Amino acid sequence: xxxxxxxxxxxxxxxxxxxxxxxxxxxxxxxxxxxxxxxxxxxxxxxxxxxxxxxxxxxxxxxxxxxxxxxxxxxxxxxxxxxxxxxxxxxxxxxxxxxxxxxxxxxxxxxxxxxxxxxx
Amino acid sequence: xxxxxxxxxxxxxxxxxxxxxxxxxxxxxxxxxxxxxxxxxxxxxxxxxxxxxxxxxxxxxxxxxxxxxxxxxxxxxxxxxxxxxxxxxxxxxxxxxxxxxxxxxxxxxxxxxxxxxxxxxxxxxxxxxxxxxxxxxxxxxxxxxxxxxxxxxxxxxxxxxxxxxxxxxxxxxxxxxxxxxxxxxxxxxxxxxxxxxxxxxxxxxxxxxxxxxxxxxxxxxxxxxxxxxxxxxxxxxxxxxxxxxxxxxxxxxxxxxxxxxxxxxxxxxxxxxxxxxxxxxxxxxxxxxxxxxxxxxxxxxxxxxxxxxxxxxxxxxxxxxxxxxxxxxxxxxxxxxxxxxxxxxxxxxxxxxxxxxxxxxxxxxxxxxxxxxxxxxxxxxxxxxxxxxxxxxxxxxxxxxxxxxxxxxx
Lengths: 120, 410
Hints:
A: two-stranded antiparallel ribbon, flat, B: mainly alpha
């Protein structure tokens, strides 16, 4: 089963951290990525640039319209993700709990839709 | 790659044989497996232009042997010192021993110390002769992930101290059951994917059938091996009829049965009929028998549900599981009416293994529909559509819900 671990964070929480805490934070991500790669469960993981750099895209009547920045000022924003494949939801949750952000913000686990089907 | 289907078939057939010979000689599965992969790639490049050598197996063995020696030389100094002499001993050019270790190889690849995904990846590479890239495409994961699964699996095998030999008689059935499970997973992965990268995934069903045939050649008297092969043939026979051009799923009852593969059905029915009469009963045989009953009905109205119910009752005894429970309930409804099915479904849904599972809602919707309670059926279809993780199922369940929409007033 594939799962996406979505990391939500807020800037204020991050600013309140000491240098040592920030270093632990980075090491935590590095260690988790390495372990997930070693156990062959990691598909891809990335951190996202600041939401101020987001471009919103919409197509109306064939024309592409873009606006800068996120739609609304929200406290929590998507800061990064891990796409993993593992045997069960419980295991995905255990991995998500090790994402350093889980201690400060909110980490969400979502199953990925697939193309399977059953005989009915 | 422009390898012709004939060369491809030869390579894939020889891959496990060459690997077995290498492992038998040097006892090192890990390096041997890498070396054979590289020999296969070399052959895939050279044979189409230079022609297939007179002794293809000898050619592959020589190239794999050389490559293995190079891999050894680049390996750690410790291992080089310890095995220097052995690594330099050339292989017997002729004759190649007639021993067939394909089964031993399969058992090693499906070693109990490995996770299911690793067993699948290693089996497809070492026994199936597929490349890492091909496996990655088939399972929709990056090549690096498959490479990692294979190398990790090989490390685990080494760490577990597993040897390249037939397991003791006591463990043997359990180990063969693990192989059957892996082959079943490979088949299902190919069969349940109904669109998207369908082209590549169809090859997985073909590959699973090919490997199961190989296994049956080695274990002709094993009822469950025959049962699994029959199950695959009888299921795969319906493939041409089960998807719409847009990739949507067509349920069994609505399939155009003229599109079913008659020769695969004949082979599967023959196989399961013979096996049921001679071998001790097993779960794969029962599932194959159920598939055979479906496949033998010229029209869904002609389906012998009484027989299917009887087979599910048996399956529920020897291999109970949540999906067997649900399928048995559908059969109960077809024999004794939807109310009887709904009653049993109410009790079954309390099982933690089924609680909140979208298939409970899908079956409930189907039975409510049959019972004429269209409004409740629609709600259950909608709930199932929200809970499924499968795109084609979601589309199918949504369309069933839409068909039951109340007529718009005016």
